[in-house]
Amino acid sequence: MLLIDLQPSSILSLSFTIEKTDSDSKARAATIETKRGVIQTPIFMPVGTLGTVKGVHQRELENDINAPIILGNAYHLYLRPGLPILENAGGLHKFMNWKRFMLTDSGGYQVFSLAQTRKISEEGVKFSSHIDGSKHFLSPESSIDIQRSIGADIMMAFDECTHFPIDHGLAKKSMDLTHRWLKRCIAQFNSTQHKYEFPQNLFHIVQGSTFKDLRTESANFIADQNAVGNAIGGLSVGEPAEVMYEMTELVCEILPADKPRYLMGVGTPANILESIALGVDMFDCVMPTRNARHGILYTTEGIVNIKNEKWKNSSESINGQPLSFVDEYYSKGYLSHLLRSKELLAGQIASVNNLAFYLWLVREARKHILQGDFAFWKKEMAEKLSQRL
Question: Which positions are annotated as active-site residues?
Fold first, then answer.
């Protein structure tokens, strides 16, 4: 077992322990440890953009889904409820009564999505609020300051995420800007202190779109910064899955093996399994909750569209292998009825099911890495996950 202290405890307190690497792939079972506690990896992080995972109580996240870490978003939380309210509450953890780990996105991706209402410069990004049209400015420094006020355990560097497809010249210009912004993020992070009980950690982000030379250049630049953890950004934005895997594999070969790797915004269960095999440790995606609200269920035997006629009169449990209380408590027929009736409870039940499945999936992956049969299990599981029941 290898224990690596990533930065001096006077600045941060995060260690990464690699327990086992799969012999037939790059998959690894590890732990991330800070003063707050331990996260076993691989791990999936439910997305709680506005201080809530949509349709799911914190109690369910803890007791039924058992998520050790969730996401918040600096852009959205800055706009509402706003930093004064969060600071008065003692940070987002206390505001939402969440005692486990939290990671905040810097807001870069959200600004990227505001293509019609933002202007990017060397200094940062001017944008109009999607809520009321008010004008705002977000820079590397202010992104760090916002995340200090939120108080997440893991903060993300402010980056520019490009669209797909994009030409090489624009992708390089964007990547270079992201690298310059990163230097400013690091300086601001090092010159400020955490505001609440637990120290914070800053992850850096690799960009470069789908160009091998740019991804190689960015990954080497990020690796040289010696962050406590590194992320792969700018993927899962419309490129084919095979290209996403190719870029992920390339970057994972360059990023330090002794630090956690986070593939941002990914993805489907199949995407997650494939990326674990490439050496990724951390994932997040809105897919399990967004698809849940549209009647798509992830189960251990395949994917269910609960809106299909065949489920209207089904007495089967939601998931053949119970992963949370909803799987035993409700039937497919009942959930089908709720969804057709546009009852809010439908989205809640489906969201708990899907998130419980995602957390089960990464924990099963971890178990099989430790057992030494990950590759065999992954192949078998991938076939099931491709089935539409």
Answer: 105, 284
